[in-house]
Write a structure and sequence with these properties.
Helix content: 55-70%
Family: Belongs to the short-chain dehydrogenases/reductases (SDR) family.
CATH architecture: 3-Layer(aba) Sandwich
Pfam families: adh_short (PF00106)
Largest sheet: 4 strands, parallel
Number of domains: 1
CATH class: Alpha Beta
Protein name: BDH protein
Keywords: Membrane, Transmembrane, Transmembrane helix
Strand order of the largest sheet: 1-2-3-4
Organism: Scopus umbretta (Hammerkop)
Length: 218
């Protein structure tokens, strides 16, 4: 239980906490049920918050470190807005926590991986048939099977490009836990992924919307 864990670590010390749990799925906004939104918020966002709050007394006591798994998808979305939403939220939670923990000597780090779908298996290949069968009648009246198939093919092509070098992300997590001077953010991504994040930060939203819309139409 939580109380048993806290008692155990109170006696032996507690150095670091890594919030790594996460789930992903594909689908346009109206395709996903409210239950699915609640599930994703519960696992990806509230799960990390619950764990952090439980161990915060020990982390303050031992001047420990807290590591959160975010994603570059916190900056933009390409068909998985529900995942992007939770990662953007966890980033803001971390930003507040990092500033508040400075006075206690607790360091907060965020890992921002690029596409490592082939390493983590966080997202299985998308089935257009399954998506279509789960759509409400209202959504089926707006979209058609061909469109859903195109979106599924697009997303599956992104998944297939994922890096298999998952050790790169693990190395960043280790550095965040052990470095004398850890970074606030570790972006572990390909150059083109980093460039896209940079563009999102630099250019007006209307420009990035055009770029991303063009990418989605390919």
């Amino acid at each position: 239980s939580e109380k048993c864990l806290l008692r155990h670590f109170s006696s032996i010390g507690f150095w670091g906490l890594v919030n790594n749990a996460g789930i992903s799925t594909f689908g346009e906004t109206g395709w996903l049920s409210m239950e699915k939104y609640e599930k994703f918020a519960d696992v990806n966002l509230l799960g990390s918050i619950r764990t952090t709050l439980a161990f915060l007394p020990l982390l303050r006591k031992y001047k420990g470190r807290i590591v959160f798994m975010s994603s570059i998808i916190a900056y933009f979305t390409l068909g998985n807005g529900i995942y992007s939403m939770t990662k953007a939220a966890i980033e803001k939670f971390c930003d507040a926590l990092r500033l508040e923990m400075k006075k206690f000597g607790v360091q907060v780090c965020i890992i921002q991986p690029g596409n490592y779908a082939r390493s983590t298996k966080i997202q299985p290949p998308v089935s257009a048939e399954e998506i279509w069968n789960e759509l409400s009648e209202e959504e089926k009246a707006v979209y058609n099977k061909e469109y859903v198939q195109e979106r599924a093919n697009f997303f599956n092509s992104i998944l297939s490009e994922g890096s298999t070098n998952g050790n790169e992300v693990v190395d960043a997590m280790v550095d965040a836990l052990t470095s004398p001077a850890p970074k606030a953010r570790y972006m572990v991504a390909k150059l083109k992924e980093k460039a896209l994040v940079f563009l999102c930060a630099l250019f007006p939203t209307v420009v990035m919307d055009s770029v991303l819309s063009y990418g989605l139409s390919k």
